[in-house]
Structure formats: structure tokens, C-alpha cells
Design goal:
Elements (H helix, E strand, L loop, with lengths): L2 E2 L13 E7 L8 E7 L6 E11 L1 H7 L16 E8 L11 E4 L2 E3 L5 H4 L11 E2 L19 E5 L3 E3 L6 H4 L5 H11 L9 E5 L5 H10 L3 E6 L5 H7 L3 E4 L3 H6 L4 E6 L8 H4 L2 E9 L12 H4 L4 E4 L5 H14 L5 E4 L4 H9 L6 E5 L5
Parallel strand pairs: 1-2, 11-12, 11-14, 12-13, 14-15, 15-16, 17-18
Antiparallel strand pairs: 2-3, 4-5, 4-9, 4-18, 5-6, 6-10, 7-8
Helix pairs in contact: 4-5
């Protein structure tokens, strides 16, 4: 039987499942509400974490409302998690009680396949387990996310949070951060000193793309539909701004960029951006998960250009990204909310009424 308790402090108290306070929903057309969920008993390589901050990701909203299909109800979202270790299993070696740690978008994989061994656990050939709306590989239960007071997670997928990072502001790095970091790191010949890099779309992903590309030494240009965002883009580290609706500005930038990071979250024409790449340039889409308009093959063939996509990073990349942020003083721009404000935050998120990520502060109560 599950027990209800304050956040645990010893592994002995986690020898059986525990009840966690959480917020989730029972149906696509229902708002999030308080509920109780069961967290598993502590396994040998598990870390128990008292959650202090949880980022709100656009995918949380989509999953809760079943926009992509396949949502398992009830659902407790949240895969940008910061917290404090309260207990560890006997096989745990990387973390200890009291450490500030983080959990991202996945919580398990087989760790033996080709992709896992290469540090791409998110592409595990046996299937990775999502932090929420996933199925546990051992007991078959549904996984629940970070809109909760505590979580139990396999050590391999728990990240050390460097002391230089503000825990409240670090939460969005676990999804938005690594989603933009990973493609920038995949193309070192196109991103870095003396390279021209453009970021399309200034939002939760785009604002971090600008910060990362600038810190990597590139000359960064923000491409946006809104002239009102020009000042924000420059404050974030962009050297230039192009208004994509301004035909003369787009024409003037033709053949300019080594790399374009496309963070636009909705379906959009890609060809105008491909025209901005110089020969051998690369464009990577990280925002749009819906069908895109067709492109002409000549847009890629003429100029030896490449168009690709990228999702979240694996465990090594994610830890590398956290260390890089600590070294360079990079934090997402956030607005903190209480858990009781989560439904209002979702509605504001739909209107893009946040600069640039919401983070739930658990100290405000569940």
C-alpha cells in the first residue's frame, strides 16, 4: 500500500510506494486539478527527488489536450524538473542526499543498444521512456511528470546542477535548452567564431538559441515576423535582426548564413529561409512538429544545402549544456508562477503571452 508522507529523507522510508501530491488532468477537455499519484518504491539505482521547480513546456499543454494523440489519462505533465535529492538506492554513485539535481524529458532506456552507447538515449532502439505519459519498463505503470512534490528516477537520467546556475531559472534548460543546444553542437563547422548563424523565431526556444549561438562565438541574427521583438533580440545577444515579412531585408540576406536554427513552432514556408543559406549551409528545424509545405529539390541541390531536424539531446549532451550555461552565465528568461496558476499559464502560453518560459515554484504550494 502506498503511504502519504512529507518528502522522504532516507531510502528505508521508500521501501514501498509513496503517494505524491500533483496536478494533472483526467481528460483532454478538462483543466488541470490537484490529484494524488503513486511513486514507485526506491529501486537500487534510483534517486528520490523533492521537486522545487518545474518548467512549463508547450508540449505539456499539447499532451494534456491530446493534440498529438496517444495521451494516457490521468496525465501529470512536466519534464523540466529541478529538485533536491532526498534518498538514493544502494547502487547510486553519482548523487547524494542534499544535491541539487535535474530531470529532463526521458527517465529510462535500455542503455545497451547502439544509440544508448553513443549517448543518444532518447533514440534507444528498444524505446526510451518519457518522463510523463510513458510506460515504465519494469512494472508497466504510467510515468508521471514534474507537476508534483516528488519523483523517483533512475540515476542515469538525473543531472547534476552546477552551483553557478539559479535553480529556478535553470528548469527550462532540461527541454528548451537542450533542444536548441543539441543542433548547434551537431554542426561545429557551421556554428562558432567567424560563422554567421540565424535563429528563426523568438520564443521559448529561440531566445535560448540566440544566447547559445552568441556564447559559442558566432555572429547571430534573429529572424522574426515582429519588428517589436528587435530590441529583445539584441538584448539577448543578437547582432542583427531581419524581419521576415520585409521582402527587401530577406532578399538582402540571401546566401549569408552558415547555419539557420528554425524554432518556429507552427507550420510555415521553409523555402524563404533556405535561400538565406550560403553554399554548404545547414538549416535545422526544432520547433514545428506538424506537416510543412513542400519544397523544391533545387533549393537544396543548388548550393549543396541541407535541411534537417533535431529533438532533445541525450544524457552527455544535456550535462554538457548545463555546464556550458554555468560557465557562461546563461539562464532562460522566465516568469515564475504558483501551481494554482497553471491553467492560466496554459491559456497565456497559447497566446504567446510570456517572455519566454513559465516555471512553477513549488514553494508556493500544491
Amino acid at each position: 500500500m502506498a503511504t502519504t508522507a512529507e518528502p522522504q529523507t532516507t531510502s528505508e522510508t521508500l521501501a514501498q510506494p509513496t503517494v505524491a501530491k500533483a496536478w494533472g488532468t483526467d481528460a483532454a477537455d478538462q483543466p488541470l486539478k490537484p490529484m494524488e499519484i503513486e511513486r514507485r518504491a526506491l529501486r537500487g539505482d534510483d534517486v528520490a527527488i523533492r521537486i522545487t521547480y518545474a518548467g512549463i513546456c508547450h508540449s505539456d499543454l499539447h499532451q494534456c489536450r491530446n493534440d498529438w494523440g496517444g495521451t494516457i489519462y490521468p496525465i501529470v505533465p512536466g519534464h523540466e524538473i529541478i529538485g533536491e535529492v532526498t534518498a538514493v538506492g544502494p547502487k547510486v554513485t553519482k548523487h547524494k542526499v542534499g544535491d541539487t539535481v535535474a530531470v529532463g524529458t526521458i527517465v529510462d532506456a535500455d542503455l545497451t543498444c547502439r544509440e544508448c552507447l553513443a549517448g543518444w538515449e532518447q533514440f534507444c532502439l528498444a524505446g526510451s521512456v518519457q518522463t510523463y505519459n510513458g510506460v515504465d519498463k519494469i512494472d508497466g505503470t504510467t510515468t508521471y511528470g514534474g507537476y508534483s512534490d516528488h519523483i523517483v528516477t533512475r540515476e542515469h537520467f538525473v543531472f547534476a546542477v552546477p552551483d553557478a546556475l539559479d535553480p529556478a531559472r535553470a528548469a527550462p534548460l532540461l527541454c528548451a535548452g537542450v533542444t536548441t543546444w543539441s543542433p548547434l553542437r551537431q554542426y561545429p563547422d557551421h556554428v562558432g567564431p567567424d560563422k554567421e548563424v540565424a535563429v528563426a523565431g523568438l520564443g521559448g526556444l529561440g531566445h535560448l538559441g540566440v544566447k547559445f549561438a552568441a556564447a559559442l562565438g558566432a555572429r547571430v541574427t534573429m529572424i522574426t515576423t515582429s519588428p517589436d521583438k528587435a530590441a529583445d533580440a539584441r538584448a539577448l545577444g543578437a547582432h542583427d535582426v531581419i524581419i521576415s515579412r520585409n521582402a527587401s531585408e530577406m532578399e538582402a540576406a540571401a546566401g549569408r548564413f552558415h547555419f539557420i536554427l528554425d524554432t518556429i513552432p507552427v507550420s510555415h514556408e521553409v523555402e524563404p529561409y533556405l535561400a538565406l543559406l550560403r553554399p554548404g549551409g545547414r538549416m535545422v528545424i526544432v520547433g514545428a512538429l506538424t506537416p510543412l509545405p513542400p519544397i523544391s529539390g533545387v533549393s537544396l541541390i543548388w548550393g549543396n544545402k541541407a535541411l534537417g531536424g533535431s529533438g532533445v539531446g541525450g544524457v552527455p549532451e544535456t550535462q554538457e549544456m548545463l555546464e556550458f550555461c554555468a560557465q557562461h552565465g546563461i539562464h532562460p528568461d522566465i516568469e515564475t508562477v504558483g501551481m494554482k496558476d497553471v491553467n492560466q499559464a496554459y491559456e497565456r502560453l497559447l497566446k504567446n503571452d510570456v517572455r519566454y518560459r513559465f516555471v512553477i515554484d513549488m514553494s508556493r504550494g500544491l
